[in-house]
Amino acid sequence: MSTPLHPVVAEVTARLRERSRDTRAAYLARIAAAGTGGTHRERLSCGNLAHGFAACGPHDKAALREGHTPNLGIVTSYNDMLSAHQPYERYPELIRRIARESGITAQVAGGVPAMCDGVTQGREGMELSLFSRDLIAMATAVSLSHDMFDGTLYLGICDKIVPGLLIGALSFGHLPGIFVPGGPMPSGITNEQKSKVRQAYAEGKANRAELLEAEAAAYHAPGTCTFYGTANSNQMLMEIMGLHLPGASFVAPDTPLRDALTAEAVHRVAALSAHGDNHLPIGHIVDERAIINGVIGLHATGGSTNHLLHLVAMARAAGIQLRWDDFDALSSVVPLLARVYPNGYADVNQFHDAGGMAFLIDQLLGAGLLHGDVRTVFGTGLDGYAQVPSLDASGALQWTPVAKESGNRGVLRGMAEPFRADGGLRMLAGNLGRAVIKVSSVPDDRQVIEAPAVVFHDQDEVRKAFERGELNRDFIAVVRFQGPRAIGMPELHKLTPTLAVLQDRGYRIALLTDGRMSGASGRVPAAIHVTPEAQAQGAIARIRDGDLIRLDATRGTLDVLVDASEFASRAPATADLSSHHSGMGRELFGLFRQAAAEADLGAGVL
Ligand SMILES: O=C(O)[C@H](O)[C@@H](O)[C@H](O)[C@H](O)COP(=O)(O)O
Ligand code: SF4
Fold it and tell me: Which of 401, 434, 452 is where one domain is finished?
């Protein structure tokens, strides 16, 4: 007997359905039309088809000519830049072999670009990062437009890659699809130890060699970085939305269990194709309930603020009109059940070992805080995800019910003793517009900051002012002209060590920006994604040095304390951004900057 759905979850879902009624209906009609006529290879000409199987070996070629068995398309984001994606190098060959052994075929449909935000953090490349999400969606469509496929496997993990792949996948929502994760790297030095060396370096108390040693001990092997940033928030989302196999998110790379899960992903997506009896297009899995489950998962785990952008964009790709108000309405009823860095000291390996996603989902389902009656790639409702994968004595994959007690109360807790009554993702609103703040890792005495503004148009200027000794005081750093239409909405996470040093010196400080922060940011209060942005003449463009600003995360307000008529009479500041619009490929993204939506609509171009 399942627990009745929490009334707020039911109400927010109903509101989302109503808001999305027409666009969701149009989307479902579109994918229904695309899905008619069974497998698509029958519609290809002989020339099209021959090109499609020319390079195949005899087994695959014969199967593709006959067309009686599923052909799976692999969209891969493999490269050697992202430690998380490096394990994917061998996946196409593994998947093709597994397919062949199952009497079906698989082909790499195409590759998509993947940016490592860790490599680009604080550098020009970061100004392409957000736009790469939509570029990945387009590249996914280019891959699948060969129309040779009956199901798809998406190989992607990190920040913009999973959102981009899912947006692209939903354009082919008539096809079954499954996300295939690679898993986190083994734990290195703790994130806390790494951050301490960074702060020491920012203060000149550690040298570059010591800093590099610490960084290399944190990021030291193939696999996803083990903090709970956007990449690992993506894994949580794909699992709680039913697009991963249960428990697949955080199993280590290159292990027998990881390979068994990848093999099962191949079997599952083939079973969901139009060739089988359980045809399940991905566009039917990603419905309003799955999206609401994703929002709830973000709140319950203190997930990345980047999903206030990406989940909105992913939902829209399925005809679903998710808004920040939906996040806000759910925030107060979903408790924080996990403390993973930056929301605590543990990492995702310790989260997984404590019971991980299966325990989290079991607890939330038991409290009526998740839609259980959803469709998933596993073929069950969400109750099937309260299970842990393992290999039995014969090496076969099995799932067993998760324990009802957390394996580590310091990392993962049950509904009876949450870390916080709410998830800590808060919306802010006031005479400066709207913004987002994550308070789950901000000390309680830093959740309300009222201090004079110090205005910057470039994140490097903050560090220089710090090094000149100008910031040893209470202040709110207003870093503007960072929005999508200005310079592509980069993450300003490189500011974290400097601002954390000042906060640790006892100053009451905060960051206010129309840019983003990393999902790994956290200790310093930061009102981010301010919309309207400065480049769109938002109120943030009227702030002057010395203006008193009040950021109140407890009441959800963000205001400049200046006479309203005087403030309105000010001409918005302008900025020469030309140096940000060329070099490192930025000259290729002018159309993206011109077309970018506001942050609360996903800040993208799709
Ligand atoms: O949203 C995120 O999770 C971040 O973009 C993350 O992917 C990025 O790589 C950080 O920069 C890593 O943290 P450090 O920069 O502190 O190593
Ligand atoms: S989690 Fe971030 S830093 Fe780590 S591999 Fe992914 S994008 Fe790069």
Answer: 401
Residue 262 three-state SS = helix
Give the pLDDT score at 43: 83
Within this chain, do residues 328 and 241 fall inside the same structural domain, yes or no?
yes
Nearest CA to ligand 2 atom 8: 116
In a domain, 409, yes or no: no
Predicted local confidence at residue 2, as pLDDT: 78
Question: Does the annotation place 158 within a ligand binding site?
Answer: yes
- Distance, CA 215 to ligand 2 centroid (Å)? 13
pLDDT, tens only, 205-222: 999 999 999 999 999 999
pTM score: 0.97
Give the three-state DSSP class for 500: helix
- Taking all residues of the chain, what is their mean pLDDT, rounded to a whole number? 96
pLDDT at 522: 81
Positions in the chain short of pLDDT 50: none
Pocket test residue of 83, 194, 220, 493 for ligand 2, highest count of atoms within 8 A of CB: 83
Q: How many domains does the chain have?
A: 3
Domain containing residue 194: 188-220
Q: For ligand 1, atom 10, which residue shows the shortest CA distance?
A: 118
**For atom 4 of ligand 1, which residue has the closest CA?**
518
Matching residue, tokens 């079906």: 104
Same domain, residue pair 19 and 93: yes
26 and 132 inside one domain: yes
Q: Are the C-beta atoms of residues 440 and 522 closer than 8 Å to each other?
A: yes
* DSSP annotation of 172: T
- Strand pairing of 387-391 and 397-401? antiparallel
Give the number of other Cβ atoms within 10 Å of residue 79's Cβ.
Answer: 16
Give a yes or no: residue 2 inside a domain. no
CA of 520 to the centre of ligand 1 (A): 5
